[in-house]
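subagent[fold] <- orchestrator: predict structure for attached chain, return tokens only, no commentary.
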Amino acid sequence: MAVKGHCDSLASPSYANFALSLFILIGILVSYLPQHYRIIRRRSSLGISPYFVLLGTTSGTCAFANILVLPRSRMNVRCCSQISGFDCFAGLLGIAQVAMQWSCFTVILLLFLIFFPRAEPLAPPKPPGSRPTYRTALLVTLLCIFHALTTFAISVALLLFRPKALPTFANVLGILATVLASIQYFPQLYTTYRLKAVGSLSIPMMLIQTPGSFLWAGSLAARQGTEGWSAWVVYLVTGCLQGTLLIMGIYYELLSWRQRRRVELGRDGGSEQGRRANGAAANHSDERAPLIGNEQ
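subagent[fold] -> orchestrator:
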């Protein structure tokens, strides 16, 4: 009876909430494209911390598995056989949003490995052993794959053999996702601080995602309620930390722009002084020419 009542509520979705959820889904994809493009264009992932990638990917995996095993999500999937295709699509948008975020961050993981800099001639000097190596990037990728396979294997096993344990497992996944997302940005903040530059990190991505995280958290909270707090609190925490990284990135970009501006002005000033010196020398030669002629 409870399932039928839930399916009836899905059969009459809020069009305002549907439009907002669809906007967030498209926004998640659009927000990650600048980061993908920046790594590919620069052909380097310099400036992106391997531990930021590790924690972000594993956090996304936990968040995705969390929303898949939540009782409300499983009821939404079950109701799709009783409601229209549009109502089913609207009811599953919350799952689609988390799946999109996980997929987009996984692409960052792959690009990070493919374009990992083997040599960093422009990077500031660092003590031996402090610079991440390609072996570190490869190990991060393998750990992320192993974590994803293990998480989804446990989820399927509980679904088949211990379904009553799924709510507890969902809360554990939600807590893990929140903890990982909370500490995810600290390695990146440290890396950006040491480099004094954003490197391959995309500021447009953070400009879109920082307010988007709060909007997304509100949308998921409206769908999952307090019962599904573990699904949306992670994005609330992420928004706060990403905002901090955004401010730091903009600050270093402004410093870099001012330094380039000073160099350009100094170069132009030097050229102008050179032209003036050459002009003065030419005038001096012209003034001496008649005197030389008279002496002859």
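orchestrator: received. Logging for downstream: The chain is about 80% helix and 0% strand. The mean pLDDT is 83.
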